[in-house]
Amino acid sequence: MGTNSKSSHASYAIAPSDAPEKAEGIEGAGPAPAAAEPELSDDLVNAKTDLMVAMDNLDALAVGNGVATGNYPELPDDPVERYEIFAAQIQSAREAIEKMKEEGASDEEIKAQLDALRAQSLAYLNALEPEELQQIAAAKGFEHPALVGLSGSGQHPLVHWLDPYYGDDIPSKQKIQAAAQKRYEQLAAGQTVGEMTLADLQQIEGTSGAPDAPPGTWAATPEQVKAAEKKWDDASVEVANAKGVLDSEKLKNLLDAEKQVLTAHSPDAPDLETLKNHTQIWTADLLSEAKINQSTVMPLVQDALASGEMSLTEAQHLKPVELTGLLRTGTPEAEKEALKATAQARKDQLQALDNALEVHQGGKQDVHTELTLPDLAGNPDAAAQVASWATNTGELHTMQQDAQGWIHETLQSPVDIGFANPALLNTHQVDPKALTTEFYSWAKTQKIGDLRAVAGELGMADPAKANRGQLQSYIAASFNPALDQDAINTKVQVTAAKKQAASAAAKAAAPLASDEAVNALKSKLTGSTAPTANSASGPGGLTQESKVEAAIKMGASPVQTQKLAQAAGAAPAKPIPKAPTKPAAPGSFNAKVQALVAGLQQAKATAQDVPARIDSDVVSSWSFGSGTPAHLGGTYNKTLHSAPDGSNWLFKADHNGGVIAHSEAAASHALSLGGVPAVPVYVKQVGGKVGSVQQMLQGATHFASDPHKWSQSEVDSIVRSHVGSWLVGDHDGHQANVLRTASGGLLHIDRGQAFKHWGSDKLSLGYAPSGGGTYDPVHQKLYSAALGDGLADGVKVNPAVAHPIIKNFEAIPDSQWRSMLHSTAYEGAKSGSGVHWVPAMRKRAAMKHGVAASKVSTEQIAEAFLDHAVERKQSLRQAFADFFVKDLKMPQAASLKHGAE
Fold first, then answer.
1. Rounded CA gap, 390 and 348, in Å?
2. HEC letters along 179-248
């Protein structure tokens, strides 16, 4: 019995056949037992055994979930296979009951066993989901099983149709099939059944409906297309009217309706392609406004995982909105691939986080432990170790900040996130400010020479000239974004130059040299004295040091000395290597290589011609004198001045009391942080007037005005510059404000209108608040030319070049961004400033605080400006993706929204 064997069983007599006698040898034995029950036949015993086995197996099938039976040690997961086993056991039980009846079992017992079997069969089938019933019925030959049981109430008709207790040919089962067939005929005629169309049914059944429908589509009549359109309309209204977070059912209805329209194939339906385009765009617009969170997408993602349409990596590492994009039929394939790549990159990032944490813990285990870097003294490897630790810690901090920006919006629970990614736990978060304080304490215990070795490992230009404070700050800048290594390098050089100039001035005891002496000095400095083997000399053979020394001996002032030394020692600029001049076929590998080389040259040319940013405190300390008029055009008066180092500078007086100067200075700083070339601008008072100063470019010329003459690298440069212009609200980038530098790069100058139209401007084709014609921004000319085939052959607008710039701006912390624009906001918000953006920000502040516009304070206006600044930076990616897609008709640019280049 234990093996569920169906072999014959021996029958045993329950009592002896003859009358019992007293037990032999026992006094007082009891009376004889009663007459025995009739003996069961072998066949009846076997039949009962078979019934018991079948009922036991049915019990096991009903429990399921891996429970094994004797004959079926491993139950299959497939519902159809399980049903086959179930039906076989029902048949075995029926046969056993029939056998019992033949062998003389009572009618009462037979009825009881049949009732129990019927109940067992119903219980099993009623426990199945409608989808499982439909799957099994389809496998057993039922046509269109999705067309029955539409009401959702009562027992599902397929339970009866599938019930193996009853025969297949009974009339009640035939009526169920007939009902499904009738409903299918209604659908085929263009009608709907229970809000279901033929397209819906074909999607459920995975059929196209016609052999000529392309793969992935369904054949539809014009009436069915209209029905699909109405279904989308109804679903879109539900989503548009949804309050609060969108529920998953409404999202599913919208996505299903969009899919039905986009996959319809109907040559006879008028304007089907237009309908598809509108549906795709309108669905995207609806979803962009909907509030979608984890609960909205969770059921849809679970279904996608179960069907294999989505990987676990994608489900765990994408945000709800990104997951929705992946689930949508209307999402372009390139964008879907970008989303998948984003998910994989984030997964890789988390692995890199853990690796970086392990290195970081070599110096600091967690936030509660002290910093334990190795002592530099007497340890030749320690400098490299500390430099590596500092660099790695900076990378760890950057990755932590980036991961914190997305991981808590995924479907992973906080517990799972912390358990799987220890680098994201609060105890392991890098706090740059606190860590810098700890690092300074450690650095004070080290020798300055050893710190110079660490700074040298990190790439400091001239650590020998740096003091302890500069060295410490330079090293800490590896992990503290509030510190700027380039600015520290510049400060080191400026400090060294000041010391050298002061020393030279101290040695100059004689009065200023006469003009004859200066000319004689110049003649000597341009002579042909042969240089020594170890000296760095100019064309005339004199070293820089010997020139300075000679100038001082002849009585020249420090400024004269430096000018003459520079004039004598100026080396000719090295020519920029040019890209291959042999034309290549557009789109070919050589063309791409040439474009890459040209782009690199363009960036290099611009970078080397733009003056380096100097510490604003240094510029503030300089005296520029009265200056001479500069006839350069523009709105404000300009004068030219010489800086103490002899360089030429431009001063623009600000008639708004410094507001415009603060705006232009902040814009230039912000653009440079984002990787957009910009001449450094500083706020300064010259001749009793406040304004802005900037170093003049040498050898710059105007940029060609004909877009047909622009190269691909120049077009790319304009696109990158446009990203920065929009961020700082500068719409004044017309032809006269774009220069070609001496080395061939492009540079947008005069950012005096930055932020002017904030709060009222728009990123759209043709928007030019400064006026049209010659005042059209260069980027507007570019886009108009691109749409009108006005660019050179093979030259095109490439949205991907905007991505690195967008990414750079996104990396600027919101706090740093607000701090950078603080002066611009508060100077502009002052009463009487006359700044153009104040009314828009006053209105925003009034709405935020629920007061009349006349009651808004200066601080509230300034803070509204800073709030808008953060919003603008955070929406930069979405704004340009929409601009390229909608205004420039470039759907592939949608991938910008998800970080694809």
1. 22
2. HHHHHHHHHHCCCCECCECHHHHHHHHCCCCCCCCCCCCEECCHHHHHHHHHHHHHHHHHHHCCCCECCH
pLDDT averaged over the chain? Answer: 81
Question: DSSP character for 426?
Answer: G
pLDDT in tens, 165-196: 998 889 999 999 989 888 887 777 667 787 78
Closest C-alpha among 620, 618, 614 to residue 685: 620
Q: Measured between alpha carbons, how far is 608 from 709 in angstroms, rounded to an integer?
A: 24
d(CA 400, CA 813) in angstroms, rounded, equals: 13
CB atoms within 10 A of CB 837: 25
CA-to-CA distance for 393 and 371, rounded, in angstroms? 12
Q: How far apart are the first and last CA of the chain?
A: 70
DSSP β-ladder status, 218-219 and 264-265: parallel
* pLDDT on residue 73: 54
Long-range CB pairs of 635-638 (<8 Å, 24+ gap) are: 635/752, 636/660, 636/691, 636/752
Q: How far apart are CA 853 and CA 397, in angstroms?
A: 42
Where does 535-668 show beta strands of DSSP type E?
628-629, 638-642, 648-653
Q: Which amino acid, one-letter code, is at 708?
A: H
Write the single-letter amino acid at 795: V
Q: What angle do CA 764, 769, 774 make, to 5 degrees?
A: 100
In angstroms and rounded to an integer, the radius of gyration of the C-alpha atoms of the chain is: 42
Which has the higher per-residue pLDDT, 72 or 61?
61
Q: How is residue 636 written in tokens?
A: 């404000």
Q: Crossing angle, helix 107-126 and helix 79-102, to 10 degrees?
A: 170
Helix axes 222-240, 248-262, angle to 10 degrees: 150
Whole-model pTM above 0.85? no
Q: Which residues contact 166 (CB under 8 A, 6 or more apart)?
A: 160, 172, 173
pLDDT category at 66 given cuts 50, 70, 90 is very low
Q: What are phi and psi of 104, to 5 degrees?
A: 95, 15
What's the full length of the chain, in residues? 901
Tokens matching residue 867: 């709030």
Both tokens of residue 604? Answer: 């290099």
- Tokens 């209204």 found at: 237
- In the predicted structure, residue 901 carries a pLDDT above the cut 80: no
Contacts 24+ apart (CB under 8 A), 812-819: 812/670, 812/673, 812/674, 812/873, 813/401, 813/481, 814/870, 814/873, 814/874, 816/481, 816/482, 817/670, 817/869, 817/870, 817/873, 818/866, 818/869, 818/870
Report how far residue 632's alpha carbon sits from residue 736's, in angstroms, rounded to the nearest whole number: 10
Strand order in the sheet with 746-748: 701-702, 738-740, 746-748
Q: Which helix (H) or strand (E) holds 265?
A: strand 264-265
